Amino acid sequence: MNACDIMHPDDAKALRMLKKLKGFDELIRASMEYGYEQVFRGENMGFMVKVTRQNFPDLYNTFKGVVRIVGIREPELCIYNDPVMNAYTYGETNTFVAVSHSLVEKMTMDEVRCVLAHECGHILCQHTLYNTLLRTIEELGTLLQVISRAALGPILIAMQYWSRKSELSADRCAAAVVGERTFQTAMLKLTCGLTEIQGSPYQLVDQAREYHRFENDSWWNRIQQNCRIAFNSHPQMCERAWEIDRWKHSYQYRKLYVGQ
To answer: Does residue 28 register a pLDDT over 90?
Structure first.
């Protein structure tokens, strides 16, 4: 799988702008290798359980199959204790994927594959490199108070906009690996937190259409909704479902999924 096959146009545009900054990639890689990446690696060993052939072999084999399909170097996989279904990836030189125990317990294995493929999509598209900058900016401002919130505002808004678009690229990777229907059921579980889903798997797609009508009903609604998500790193769940429902009709999706 190639990054260009799954890259959302807005994600690709934002990445091109970032890559135009001379020395930017080298600076971020250095900060990861000697700073945050080492911190997180230590936290993983101290507070999470590593998934291997010996420990959780079913989950490991599922993960290994996803890595093979996506075509990336195999990262480490860890499980952490959290009642919220979630997963994330981090690191450039020592990449890892972490999933919560509740996600593994509440989802079917195909849905777990979907989430793992989403995280591998971030790695394929080199999102971890740029998410480091976003995390560093946030911590310099909100934790260390090195930069004022007022000064950070425009930078954070721009970076969070890119972050939301990067999720759409990773979603495409997930749908290409497991199929768009499994993607929709996984999104429903992540949204409501339930183990069993009743009714149509396309509930969020229907809600997205309703949301679009609401948003476009007036200029004030559009302003309110845009302001509401301006500092969010992820798009609305219904938007993610709607984007994949549109993408399933594309040549890229048919080529990638049929190829499985």
So the answer is: no
The Cα–Cα gap between 106 and 97 comes to 18
Would you say 87 and 99 are in contact if contact means Cβ atoms under 8 Å apart?
A: yes
**So what's the pLDDT on residue 212?**
82
Tokens at 83, concatenated: 């009642």
CA dist., res. 187 & res. 181, Å (int): 10
Distance CA 37, CA 39 (A): 5
Q: How far is CA 70 from CA 31, 67, 73, 116, in A?
A: 27, 5, 9, 10
Pairing of strands 49-50, 76-80: antiparallel
Three-state secondary-structure class, residue 122: helix
**pLDDT, tens digit (0-9, with 9 covering 90-100), for 42-56:** 777 888 999 999 999
How confident is residue 258, by pLDDT bands cut at 50, 70 and 90? Answer: low
CB 128 within 8 A of CB 97: no
Find out whether 165 and 116 touch, Cβ atoms under 8 Å.
no
